[in-house]
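Hi, here's the filled form for the chain we discussed.

Project: internal
Contact: R.S.
Residues: 167
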Amino acid sequence: MQQNKMGKGMLIMAWLIGLALLTFIFDEQLAKQFNPNSEPLSSSVSGVTEVRLEQNRAGHYVSGGAINGQPVVFLLDTGATQVSVPMHLAEQLALEQGRASWVQTANGRVQVAQTNIQRLSIGDIQLNNVAAHLNPGMQSDQILLGMSALKQLEFSQKGDWLVLRNL
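And the returned structure, exactly as it came back:
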């Protein structure tokens, strides 16, 4: 009887370990589908740095990067005038709140605080003094990489790839 209980306990333990392993594997796979560019690869030819980004499963370009040396996740948004940072990340990213202003977003009109990003990077591309705003309406940790940063780059799309080059 005792041996039968121990056998059932071992079987349950094996199932739990198996489920944990599957969860870990699928979690990794889902993260890669959302952000296939968590560590974007860079190349440099004749002083021009290039970063290639693969489109995610939803058709967006998402990339790992950094603001003021802190790792972040960017969602590239050519429809956004400025880089838009969730307000709750301001202190962590060493961003100071400037004057308040109203902006029109995809979710309607919202009051934001102007800020300036000293250092923004994607792969080996680095931009300095990028205009941005802190948006209290953004709840996720993603940062919309708008035209205040993208206008400093040359970018082209072909198939499922977006190529960024410094100017």
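Let me know if anything looks off before we file it.
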